[in-house]
Structure formats: structure tokens, C-alpha cells
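Morning, I've got a small favour to ask if you have a moment. It would help a lot if you went through both lines with me. I owe you a coffee for this, so here goes:
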Amino acid sequence: MYRESIIGLALAATLAEMNPRLTARQEEEVWRIFDTSMTASVAEAPLMSHVSVQVPPPSSVAGGGMTAVSTALPQLYIPAHSSETTGDMVPIEAPGVEPPDAPATPSPSLALEAPFDDSHIAFPVYRNCDGVWTVLLKDPTVVVRDGSGKSEKMQLDYLKVCLKDISARPGAAKARGTKRRRARKS
């Protein structure tokens, strides 16, 4: 979980740059220390801390509030293999939606020249993969209040939230299948 945070991604990028000089054992040791330190820092957080997130109403591709949300999904871009992939993005197209015009050969400098255009994406964006929900929020306001009553308000461009679905238990499906096999043998 911590490896997918901004700090974890920064460490992964740093390790990738140092990869020829590091052995696999050294890299595993760095990740072990990172995981341990992140777990310890989360454990040290005050129990009375409170985090709240406020977002504007869902938007449509054309803009507007909840009543303007269209039922047609826009073209979304999701990493090719997983959320840890930093390579090419794979487009997922909804039926009946034309893909936006794209340059024939993408250049690396294109991303640096123009800001990310999200006008073709309806927010919030939801995804469920292996019992983990990922929600991408646009323009959220995050308020963090500690146990002493001090609070800090932050306005973000985007917020990625990962939630584990505790109702998705793989053992429950296996147990049901096992009972059926036993019933057939009898």
C-alpha cells in the first residue's frame, strides 16, 4: 500500500535510476526499511486525528453538476498492467464514443509542453481490481484535524483513494465449491 504512495513512487524512481549499481538484495533491504518506517510513522499518528474530503458534485464530460452526468462513458486511460506500471497507457473505450484525436507519434516533450487535458473524463472515476477500489477525485478539499483541534485545509488538483473491499473474500467462494464436490462424491 505504501509503495503506491507518492513517496513510494519517488523511491521506486530513484531505485530504478540506481538499478545497475544496486544488487537485488540491497534493493530488497531498502524496500524493507521503507515499509517498516512507513508502518511505524502511521502507527505514531495521533488516534484522534480526523481526515475529511469534500469534493464538488460529479461532473459530466460537458461540465455541470450531478444532473448533467451522461450515461455514456468517456475514453479512460488506465495503466497497461497495474497501477505500478509507469509505461504506456492503454485506452479503454466505451461503445459509441469516438476516441479523441491523438498525434501519430507521441513525443516525450509533448507531456512537458501541455498540461494534462481531462475534459473528456467524467469524474469521479471508479475502478475495482482484485477487491481494491480505486477512486480518482478531481478538485477535492482535504481537511486534516489532529487531536489538539488544530486543522489544516488543502486544495488538491486530484486525489487517488484506494479502498480494500472487505466483503470480497476469496475463501468464501472456495468453501462453497468444496461443499458441492463433496455432495457429488456421496
User: Anything to note?
Assistant: Residues 46-185 form one domain. The chain has two domains: 1-44, 46-185.
